[in-house]
Specification:
- The structure is a single chain.
- The protein has 4 helices and no strands.
- It is mostly helical.
- It has one domain.
- The longest helix has 10 residues.
């Protein structure tokens, strides 16, 4: 990784498959995401959390302490109730 100022592991198609990540740029991505609940409004969380977890090291200390891996926390983030924790889309 010498000479690379940043690296997005999800730019590599092998890791994209391994992490089962679907980019927000993908048209109708929610049709490809399969999660284990009946709430169709949170399907994007499956992929969004992959991106967030891979970037946890770049959160501020305050953001890291406030971060939670719950569905409610994800909904709050999407609704903008947690401030600018992580840009999802």
């Amino acid at each position: 990784m010498k000479g690379v100022h940043c690296y997005d592991i999800l730019a590599n198609p092998l890791y994209l498959d391994d992490f089962q990540y679907f980019t927000p740029a993908m048209e109708d991505r929610e049709k490809f995401i399969i999660d284990d609940d009946d709430d169709e409004g949170n399907d994007n969380a499956q992929s969004d959390l992959v991106k967030i977890v891979l970037n946890l090291a770049f959160l501020t200390e305050k953001q890291a302490k406030e971060f939670s891996f719950s569905k409610d926390a994800y909904k709050s983030q999407v609704a903008g109730k947690m401030g600018n924790l992580v840009k999802i889309n």
